[in-house]
Write a structure and sequence with these properties.
Protein name: Cell adhesion complex protein bystin
Structural class: mainly alpha
Oligomer: single chain
Number of strands: 0
InterPro entries: Bystin (IPR007955)
Low-confidence stretches: 9-13, 72-83
Largest sheet: none
Family: Belongs to the bystin family.
GO molecular function, one term: snoRNA binding
Pfam families: Bystin
Amino acid sequence: MGKASKIKVGKQKRNVPLDEQLKEELTARKARIKSRNRKDEDELFVDEKLTKKILDQARKQQEDLEEEHGLQSSSTGGKFKLPDIKLRLPGNTGASSDEEDDEEPGEDDTFYETIEVDEADEKALELFMNENTQARRTLADIIMEKLKEHETEVATLFSDAGSVQMADLDPKVVEMYRGVKKVLSRYRSGKLPKAFKIIPSLSNWEPVLYLTDPDSWSSAAMYQAT
């Protein structure tokens, strides 16, 4: 006859009052929550350390680029600057509302590019920004300049009055061209006297022209004559 197997009877649960059971349950729940919070803090701490390391490496890389391309502010007068590198802490999107308010819309999605300015572009910018640049001359300024040049030439040509022989001229011709002189001194617009127009065709045009006294001509008459 076989041996009867023994039936193992587990320990009976001790009778614990209901309030004690509730306290134990609350204590266990608080312990689980505290453990979860500690785990989250450890992960955040690791992320911050990693981010700081990335920032340090990026800053060092930026300094190396500045030294390599000669873009330090001390050597260029602060004209050129590499774009700033900004990184956001992972998992920390809601950390500070003030930082989000300071950022412009779409800043996180924008990529900046360094613009290289060559010597020709720099000279063009300097010319554009130069406050001492001479004002552009107008058409009237150019005309007046030409008139003064011709006036100077005529005055030089007839500066020596003794060199002009007036004895060979008819008195009527002398009187007529002295009248032309008065007309040219007051001339503003309109037709010029015919006697004035035929002067270039005369064989003795120099003494005749001298009678009109070019120094007394108006600017309009000088312009028509030239």
